[in-house]
Amino acid sequence: MTAEHVPAAPGTRPLANWTTRRWLRVGVSASLALLAVLSGLGVWAMGRATSISNDLVNTRSPALTNSVRLETALVNQETGVRGYGLTGEKQFLEPYRQGLADEKSAVDRLHQLLSGDAREQADLRTVLGRARTWQQRIATPISGAPAGAPVPIATDRAAEGKAAFDHLRQAMTAQQNHLLSARMSAVGDLNRAQTLCDWVFAAVALVIVLLAAAVFEGLRRGVSGPLTRLSSDAGRVTRGDFTHRITASGPADLRKLSTDIDAMRSRLADELATSEHTRRLLDEQAADLKRSNEELEQFAYIASHDLQEPLRKVSSFTQLLQRRYSGQLDERADQYIGYAVDGANRMQTLINDLLAFSRIGRVLNNHETVDLDTLLDDTLDALSVSIAEAGARVTRDDLPAVAGDSTQLGMLWQNLISNAVKFRAPDRSPEIHISAAEEDGVWRFSVTDNGIGIDPEYADRVFVIFQRLHTKDRYPGSGIGLAMCKKVVEHHGGTIAVAPLSTPGTRITFTLPSTPPPTQHLPVK
After folding, report:
1. How far is Cα of residue 425 from the mean position of the Cα atoms in its chain?
2. CATH code reported for the domain at 365-513
3. Which end of the chain is more exposed for a tag (fewer CB within 10 A), N or C?
4. Chain centre to alpha carbon of residue 354
5. Relative orientation angle of helices 252-325 and 225-238, to the nearest 10 degrees
6. How far apart are the first and last CA of the chain?
7. What share of the chain is helix, strand, coil (3-state, %, to 5)?
């Protein structure tokens, strides 16, 4: 059932069953219909005003202008002919010839502009007919006479020429009066069209203002008011007054929402006691779990320390037996004693490694600025014997200073370099290179060797504690080294991984932040 079709309560009015969506649809549809009608009227009025304006600008005004140009051209012809007829001097023919050219240009333009107006075309034909009569009787004969002396025909036909040109002037005046009248009529039509546009757009603006006021009032009465009351009631429930009922008001969907919220309030009130009891139980269980974890960590720490003493005794006495009775017992007894010594030593190493692993992240570590160049020098000095015995060559880039714990970072370098020395290939001397580069706000370090390498399928497994890829007889160790490296790097906010390498060997990369991490305050275990 959609929110638009909320079932009506018996005896309610039909409008009371309308949802917010339906009220909005009806209101928006009516508003759009009214605006569409007014917009259509506005578009028609603007189109009419544009049409009249285009006719005025492109036809009426240019037609009147070219009519005046035609009159000016004919007057220039009359002036030039009259001057040439009286004096016979050729310079008087220049205005006449220019007038002929201007007359042709004006007539061609008038033919284009007046092509759809029968009355104006008739006026133009009248003007051109009288102009041809004057030109044939007066202008052409006089302008064609030889220069140098007054033209007799000019004197003989002076009265006839004046009468013909006056007759032509009357035709041109009538034409211009008609064109001016048509232009003034177009100006009046344009003013009325613009007035209509102004009224239409004023009506549109008024309707928009009224619609905005109606929408605001409708939203206030139908949406914001009920929502405000609902929010106030829900706020009281939120503050803990679960006995306060939610008042239903507004459109049908908001009333249904209020009813649903009130039902939820009632259910919450019923379940509050149960949830409070459950919360108390969870708090007790969390406290028990925290205490159990602390006791377990303390137990593991103490047990590891307590194991050291019996292991020291076992290791000491087995070594004493080995030194004192070596060669006095049979070969198998010497072998058994050797097994005991080796097992005790490996157990002691394992316990020490586990203690070191457990301390990472548990004890209080004050991060300080650590010069990795100096720290690496100390590490290489500590491993100098094993490096010399393996014939290894260690090269490195300049290393930066980072924020961290110098002891843990020293353990990191020691494990990575000793692994590179330990897991060397039997057919070549170890080559180890340490590099550093800053990228995206972190320092990325790489320890690359030419040893036996790590298969890609084991790239993640090597960082898990006690995971070994080789037997203890071939490569001794506890299987904690790379797991410890991973814990140190992650404790400093970085990541560590086995990077692909195209040449034989292994590349371990890890990152450390280039900016100091936040100071960590961890309890001492």
Report:
1. 53
2. 3.30.565.10
3. N
4. 50
5. 40
6. 60
7. 70, 10, 20
Angstrom CA distances, 245 to 37, 107, 238, 340, 444, stand at: 48, 91, 12, 80, 61
CA proximity to 130, closest of 77, 92, 181, 83: 77
Task: Please check whether residue 331 is in contact with residue 312, taking contact to mean a CB–CB distance below 8 angstroms.
Answer: no
Digit-coded pLDDT (tens) for 450-501? 887 777 776 667 776 655 554 454 555 455 777 878 888 888 888 888 887 7
User: Is the model's pLDDT at 266 over the cut of 50?
Assistant: yes
Element (H, E) at 252: helix 252-325
Dihedral sign, CA of 179, 181, 185, 190?
positive
Domain extents in the chain: 27-225, 365-513
* Neighbouring residues of 459: CB distance < 8 A, sequence distance ≥ 6: 497, 498
Confirm whether pTM is higher than 0.85: no
Contacts of 433 (CB under 8 A, 6+ apart): 394, 395, 396, 446, 447, 448, 449
Q: Residue 125: pLDDT above 80?
A: yes
The amino acid at residue 172 is M
